[in-house]
Amino acid sequence: MPTINEVLEQAGRIRPDAIDDATKASWLLELDGQLRNERRERYEEDLGEGPAVYPEDGDMPLLVAGEHERVYLLYLFAQADAVDREADNYNNSAALFNEALDSCRKAWHRSHMPRDKGNYKNHL
């Protein structure tokens, strides 16, 4: 799993900007928290708790790993474009992010058991 610092370092290499790391880390934690809550509500797997604030060392692993971890980078790029008021870049970045997030959600859904809501009734 990537850590906050790893994502920040990779984003800085690919697209350097003037936005400070603490702000970017808060964006990452926002997205990670959203994904954790979404998965906690819908699936049986215990995901553990993510941090509420940016840890001083930044070595906290984020939830999404492997081929879908680029969702974090794309989110940072979209947020940076929004802050910079770059509408065309934002639209492109947001579209790429949404596509990656959709792919990530579908992959998770294919490989994890949904939480039983107890709503099913057999009427035979």
What does this structure look like?
- The protein is mainly α and 124 residues long.
- The protein contains four helices and no strands.
- It has helices at 4-14, 21-42, 70-83, 87-111.
- Helix 1 crosses helix 3 (70-83) and helix 2 (21-42) packs across helix 3.
- The longest helix has 25 residues, at 87-111.
- The chain is globular.
- The protein starts with a helix and ends in a 13-residue tail after the last helix.
Describe this protein with a few key phrases:
124 residues, mainly alpha, single chain
**What oligomeric state do the depicted chains represent?**
single chain
SSE topology string: HHHH
Choose one word for the global shape: globular
Ends distance: 46 Å
Given as residue ranges, the uncertain stretches (5+ residues, pLDDT < 50) are: none
Total of helices: 4
Query: What integer value in Å does the Rg equal?
Result: 17 Å
How many distinct beta strands? 0
Q: What's the average pLDDT? A: 83
Percent of residues in helices: 55-70%
Structural class: mainly alpha
Task: Please summarize what this structure is.
This protein has 124 residues and is mainly α. Helix content is 58%, strand content 0%. Helix 1 packs across helix 3, helix 2 packs across helix 3 and helix 3 runs antiparallel to helix 4.
List the helices and strands and how they pair.
Blueprint: H1 4-14, H2 21-42, H3 70-83, H4 87-111
Helix pairs in contact: 1-3, 2-3, 3-4
